[in-house]
Amino acid sequence: MSATTWQPAEQIAALIAQLTPPPGTQLVLAYSGGVDSEVLAHGLAQFAKRHPEYRYLLVHVHHGLSGNAGRWATHCQRRALVYGLPIKVKQVAVNTGPRVSLEAAARDARYHALAQELTAGDLLLTAHHQDDQLETLLLALKRGLGPKGLAAMGAIQAFHQDKWLLRPLLDISRQQVEQFAVTHTIEHIEDESNLDNRFDRNFLRLEVIPALRARWPAIAVTSARSAQLCAEQQALIDDEVASRLPAMLQETANASSPVLDLRLLAQQSAPWRAQLLRGFIDSLGFAMPSAAQLKQVLVQLIDAKEDAKVEIRLNAMVLRRFRHQLYIDRYQPHAKLAPINIRLSDALSQHWPITDTASLQAKRCCHGDRLRLPMADERVSVRFGAPGSLRCHPHFRDKGRELKKLWQELAVPPWMRDQVPLIYFDDHLVAAVGYWVEKRFIALADDVGLVFELQA
């Protein structure tokens, strides 16, 4: 495709045709003001004239990392008037602390700002082109990534689960983009940081890729073909994981999300163990650990002894093993919940906050296994955590048992036990919310009693 035969509006139209979004869908362009995004904005303006059924927005993210950032924002606002497209300038704070990749931090801040402008079904357009694809592939090789990483960028990809990310220029070279800008006299800015080869992408763009092109002129095209093949192989792997994984997942009353049966996982070959664990982590929405981390996690999970306590924290998630099952939750610093005294009224339903996100509800009723009403002189309190040696007699057992044994009988994982609200009358444990009522404190016959529930 020569510089004179392609049109950015047609590139956009070709991808839109594959998705057929309904009227009213918003197309949001990540608009930096650089030559790539200016050419794509030019094309989006032409596309918008032909398709008034959609909504359009240019979003310029003001990182504040350059003394020229304000001037660039002004440029983008002026150009938006030329294109006849609405624009929003969003200023973000970029984490520039020690041991932080400025490139990665700026990218994360940018995409977070862009995501805020999208609702379900909306489309985000970025101006990545063929040379960007080559850079991405080389960075993936440097990091030692597998097929998923080497698949680099797709022309159409899911974004934040219910939105889409489109890259209309992905099969267009940087030279073609720049030539289009010259031919159509498209103004653009020059970011001076693009000449700083301390950044990995700039190093590749300025020093490595020119040498590769000098030796192999078609390197961007052939590498894109390799990325596509990797994407196809990854799609096959994803399909197989989607087929195998559901049979290994179980729902449990003690977890808000499915748990993974480690005995079934152990029956798989080593490569499939890794793929299935990746699939499980991805299904819960967590960032993927490195290959080395994943390998170590599998060793600890599968080779652990029956009664071993396995708890592994990886960034925002924590992985725990309990009874051959893998629980994955978002990491939260463990805080001991404080006991609270509650005063019961004659209302049919009452609530008391337990944490910032949960409350305890008491309902009065005349049926089921319910707690009797407290006596006038009995003090009611909610506590968290009790000695494992405490003897309890749940309503569903003929005999009493130690609390530690009851938690095991009910398959309540150890890390959850101190989070269960325990109801006390004076110093007597009378109910474990969600699990049992003490037998001698059950309301009799048709007497009004109490049912406690934890509300998230």
From TrEMBL:
Q: Which family does it belong to?
A: Belongs to the tRNA(Ile)-lysidine synthase family.
Biological classification of the source: Bacteria, Pseudomonadati, Pseudomonadota, Gammaproteobacteria, Alteromonadales
Q: Which organism is it from?
A: Shewanella algidipiscicola
Ranges for the Lysidine-tRNA(Ile) synthetase C-terminal domain? 380-452
The protein's name is tRNA(Ile)-lysidine synthase
Keywords, comma-separated and alphabetical = ATP-binding, Cytoplasm, Ligase, Nucleotide-binding, tRNA processing
Subcellular location(s) per record: Cytoplasm
Give the top-level enzyme category: ligase
Q: Which reaction is catalysed here?
A: cytidine(34) in tRNA(Ile2) + L-lysine + ATP = lysidine(34) in tRNA(Ile2) + AMP + diphosphate + H(+)
